[in-house]
Specification:
By secondary structure, the protein is α+β, with helices and mostly antiparallel strands. The protein has helices spanning 2-18, 20-24, 28-63, 82-85, 105-123, 130-133, 179-191, 203-207, 220-238; strands spanning 75-80, 95-100, 176-177, 211-216. It has one domain (51-238): Beta Polymerase, domain 2, CATH 3.30.460. The chain has a four-stranded mixed β-sheet with strand order 3-2-1-4. The longest helix has 36 residues, at 28-63. The protein starts with a helix and ends with a helix.
Length: 242
């Protein structure tokens, strides 16, 4: 996984170096070409990082040992944030949620463990600082020399756009949601954009963009498409265009 990430970075470092002459000789004629090329690089990089996130999730699913008679319900791991907006870099953090068909104590335990498995796998890349993880018990014990790179969204108060939330009780499993829950949460905040109803701000702006990282089951893609159609309709209705 680390070598894949290094390869992605080398690819885009090279492409950005090729734009050096444009920056050095910046003029009106080169501005449009530069902007278009940067947009293409960003879109292509986002696509590669979605594939990398898919690799992370595939490895996490394989690594999570479950009873032989247990099978999770249909679900999707869905990127939110920069990865969903098409603005990702190889150093962007990963923000994602689980869109699940059903909920039960057994299923919640599975998705919690799957999320944690993905966090550990990402942490093993050696690019997540202890400070970023906000582990109070380790504060002051170690000097953390790791460089901040590809990581999950984190466990600080202002972070935690990940399935298990940011460690605070009200945020537990905040992003392990069924389609109806996600729709309700979106429309509630759209109708009343109160920061207290969302995760450190307007939830609609975060869920407005989404991209599938991983699908499991025949109806997983359909669940996501249903939510996308919902927010498009609700947003247009809010703007008075329908």
């Amino acid at each position: 996984m680390k070598s894949k990430l290094v390869s992605i970075r080398e690819k885009y470092h090279l492409q950005l170096k090729e734009l050096h002459f444009v920056v050095k000789n910046f003029d009106t004629d080169s501005k449009e070409m530069f902007t278009e090329r940067m947009q293409n690089i960003s879109t292509e990089c986002t696509s590669d990082m979605i594939k990398f996130a898919n690799d992370i999730m595939c490895e996490s699913v394989k690594a999570l040992i479950t009873p032989c008679d247990f099978s999770p319900c249909d679900f999707s791991a869905i990127a939110i944030g920069s990865l969903a907006k098409g603005e990702a870099t190889p150093y962007s953090d990963l923000e994602y949620l689980f869109l699940v068909k059903e909920k039960s104590p057994e299923l919640l335990q599975y998705f919690e463990q799957l999320a944690l498995t993905s966090y550990f796998l990402i942490g093993s890349l050696g690019e997540t600082t202890l400070e970023y993880m906000d582990i109070r018990e380790l504060s002051g014990w170690f000097k953390d020399f790791a460089l901040s790179g590809f990581k999950i969204d984190g466990l600080q108060k202002k972070a935690g756009n990940i399935p298990t939330g940011n460690g605070r009780r009200r945020m537990k499993n905040h992003f392990i949601v069924m389609p109806d829950e996600l729709k309700s949460r979106y429309t509630d905040v759209l109708d009343n954009p109160d920061a207290n109803q969302a995760l450190q701000g307007d939830l609609t702006s975060m869920l407005k963009f989404s991209a599938i990282i991983y699908n499991y089951g025949d109806t997983a893609n359909e669940m996501h498409e249903g939510f996308v159609a919902l927010w498009r309709h609700a947003t247009l209705q809010k703007r008075g265009k329908i």
